[in-house]
Amino acid sequence: MRKIYLVDDDEDNRMLIRQALESMAEETEIVEFTNGQQLLTFLEESCSIEPSLILMDMNMPIMNGVEALSALKDRSELRHIPVVLVSTSQSHTTIESAYQQGANAYIVKPYTLDGYLRMAHAVNLCFLNIYLPAAQTGTFRNTAGKNVVIIEDNPDHAELMEIFIKRDAPGLNVIRQTSAETAIDFFESLDKTASAAIDLIIVDLYLPARKQGLDLLAWLRMYFVDKGIPIAPVVVMSSSGHQQDIKASFKLQANAYLVKTAEPAGSFSYLTDLCAVWWDTISFPKKPENGIA
Predict the structure, then answer these.
(1) Residue 290 clears pLDDT 80, i.e. is over it
(2) How many C-alpha atoms does 207 have within 13 Å on its Cβ side?
(3) How many CA atoms lie within 13 A of 70 on its CB side?
(4) What are the φ/ψ torsions at residue 176 (nearest 5 degrees)?
């Protein structure tokens, strides 16, 4: 049974989010809270199964979402729980601050039913590993000029991933790296402008061992900090569904963790959908318009 903690002081908003999630995600329990302090107290006192995700409003009384997020990420025993912040604000400064505080994703609060369904779909795909038929996911926007880096040491998987992405988004630029070492060499070869042009990074955790993947996640964070630019979303896509691997990846600030299906092509067929989610539904700090040489 998957579990989501929904934190929002607005009863109507909680109802809309709950209905959207329940319409798409079966066997998912949603536990509601009205402020950040209530959430933290429950997490400290509860012995129940940890949530797969905390979906939290930013503006709440007593303790707001940013304060609660900061408290969560300051505690080593809670740092691995992914947090999606939801807010009416579209301010670049607010969005950038949310990610600096450790948010896994930032979603501007929808105003339509379709918007709530898109939010639910983003949650399902990125945090619950629920793959829905394409007919339920909406359409993709133009992805021409976007750059996706795939770091995958299994050549068959890498080939399939690129095939599925280019099938649905032929204008999208796919950059494949076969190991943590080649990925580091690639990023170090880029100047600041080219680094800022990376729009999504998809990383296999076992490269070929878990340590290489985790070390690369930590390195990527420091690389973008040293460059002084916001990092692109980093999505781990692994055959491992073990909780220790998922928790370790989130502790190192992976934005999302997807488990490959028994037939990897089944999950790879949703890669363009994954791109659309991060570029259309989830807000990320804006970067300068530029390209990779």
Answers:
(1) no
(2) 25
(3) 10
(4) -100, 135
d(CA 237, CA 153): 12
Dist CA 29 CA 129 (whole Å): 15
Top pLDDT among 50 and 70 is at 70
Closest of 253, 202, 256, 261 to residue 52, by C-alpha: 256
Distance CA 137, CA 117 (A): 9
Which residue would you say has higher pLDDT here, 138 or 254?
254
Map out the domains of the chain as residue ranges: 2-130, 136-281
Q: What is the pLDDT of residues 19-35, one digit of tens each?
A: 999 988 778 899 999 99
How far apart are the C-alpha atoms of 56 and 97, rounded to whole Å? Answer: 15
Q: Is the preceding omega at residue 208 within 30 degrees of 0, hence cis?
A: yes
Confidence band, pLDDT 50/70/90 cuts, at residue 292: low
Q: What is the CATH number of domain 136-281?
A: 3.40.50.2300
Q: Tell me the whole-structure pTM to 2 decimals.
A: 0.93
Query: In this structure, are residues 247 and 76 in contact, taking their beta carbons and an 8 Å threshold?
Result: no
Share of the chain above pLDDT 90, in %: 75
Q: How large is the angle between the packed helices 65-73 and 36-45, nearest 10 degrees?
A: 30
Same-fold call for 2-130 versus 136-281? yes
Q: Alpha helix (H) ranges present in the chain?
A: 11-24, 36-45, 65-73, 92-100, 113-123, 155-168, 180-188, 192-196, 210-227, 243-251, 264-268, 271-276
Is it the case that residue 52 has pLDDT exceeding 80? yes
- Cβ atoms of 128 and 258 closer than 8 Å: no
Question: 2-130 sits in which CATH class?
Answer: alpha beta
Instruction: Render the burial of 193-202: b for 16+ CB within 10 Å, e for the rest.
Output: bebbbbbbbb
Residue whose C-alpha is closest to residue 87's, from 66, 104, 67: 66
